[in-house]
Specification:
- The longest helix has 27 residues.
- The protein contains 2 helices and no strands.
- The protein is elongated.
- The protein is mainly alpha-helical.
- It comes from Bradyrhizobium campsiandrae.
- This is Cardiolipin synthase N-terminal domain-containing protein.
- Keywords: Membrane, Transmembrane, Transmembrane helix.
Length: 59
């Protein structure tokens, strides 16, 4: 396993989780804005899956 690619995967996964938590925190506090939570969930899960496949499974 390539250590450099694995390190970038860890960095991107940490950034991804940070942005996910920041979005959920801000979205839950916002008044009067309706989100398509299914779309949000699908978008974040697609990005997370891509990070996993490229950097950890190395496809």
């Amino acid at each position: 396993m390539d250590v450099g690619k694995l390190a970038w995967g860890v960095v991107l996964a940490i950034l991804f989780l940070f942005f996910l938590l920041a979005f959920v925190r801000r979205a839950s506090r916002t008044q009067g804005v309706k989100y398509n939570w299914l779309g949000v969930l699908l978008s974040f899960s697609t990005i997370g899956l891509a990070i996993y496949l490229v950097f950890f499974r190395q496809l």
